[in-house]
Amino acid sequence: MTCAILSFLLISIDHANDHLAAIRSALSVVVYPVQVLVNAPVEAAASVAGSMKSRQALLDENERLRQENLLLSSKSQRFLALERENARLRELLDSSVVFDQQVIAADVLAIETTPSSRQIVVDKGSNQGVYVGQPLLDAYGVIGQVAAVGPFSSTALLITDPRHALPVLINRNGLRAIAVGGDQSNELNLSFISTNADIKTGDLVVTSGLGRRFPAGYPVGRVKDVTLEPGDPFATVTVEPSARVGHTREVLLVGPRPPALDDERMSSLEP
Hints:
alpha+beta, 2 domains, six-stranded antiparallel β-barrel, 3 helices, 12 strands, 38% helix, rod-shaped
């Protein structure tokens, strides 16, 4: 009771006249180390908790950023693929501007390049107007012709297939020949080239238009090698295809209206 009465008395005196300010200040200096010592465990616990929360937040943020980075990387790769595909399609469209032909763009579904058979399957068929014998080309040159047609897909024989023959000419001088598939998957051979013919390495070979299947002027390849064997009436001429045979992903099917439609039109004109 005495302490309580003394405390109330001192509080009243200090509140009225502020006589104990100096004593209170001195006592605060003395008590401060005790306050710090008592509060140290609380501050340490709070600091540890804050560090743990900060570490967890950093881990969560790091995981989030990692996932975002993976997502952006995948999108970037997709955008790059689309950009390259767009460039290839632009090249394809540019290559068809020169020719006033019916054009159908198609994607390659499968490629078969064995010594006995070299062909591709595309995702366009009779429903899209594809017909047997229709020429195929990529952004760089002739790649083959349609050999079989289904409703939704078609099989095309590559120009490097040993069973394929294509009328061609040397662009430099108009020398005519037949380009047939070679022994290698990426070469052609020119038939019926005499040993004294004017043909050189690097000459551009294009379609001649004979046979009315491949319109004239399509690039076929460039002469890679000319070999003359003693006693042979013809030279051995190897041509490297201009088209990316076996590696292309998009092709163009070009040509006039399907032959069936032409036959119907001609029959309607007959008396």
